[in-house]
Amino acid sequence: MSTFILAFGFFLLMVLAMGVGYIFQKKSISGSCGGLGALGVSKACDCPEPCDRKKARLEKEAIRERKLEEWKNNQIL
């Protein structure tokens, strides 16, 4: 039981130290590898064309934009 309490205290101390560092330096926690940008990958998946869900979402957004544009053109001011 003492090992658990000691480990819990250590992790609590580390979280507190990171919190204090963030508060005083206003820096976000970041990894050392630089993420996908360091590998030359511009998007999360390296697919040549978007998946079906993304295609549907883009189509839905395009329809919304057309309706909004039509509404603006028919608006009486």
Listing every helix as H and every strand as E from the N terminus to the C terminus, the arrangement reads: HH
Unreliable residue runs: none
| Most strands sheet | none
Work out the strand percent.
under 5%
Instruction: Calculate Rg over CA atoms.
Output: 24 Å
N-end to C-end Cα span? 73 Å
**Helices and strands: which structural class?**
mainly alpha
Q: Report the helical percentage.
A: 55-70%
The best one-word shape is elongated
Number of strands: 0
Mean pLDDT: 81
What is the number of helices?
A: 2
Walk me through the structure:
This protein has 77 residues and is mainly alpha-helical. The chain is built from two helices and no strands. It starts with a helix and ends with a helix. 0% of the residues are buried.
Short description:
The chain is mainly α and 77 residues long. The protein is built from two helices and no strands. The mean pLDDT is 81.
Label this structure with key terms.
77 residues; mainly alpha
Helices, strands, pairings?
Blueprint: H1 2-25, H2 52-73
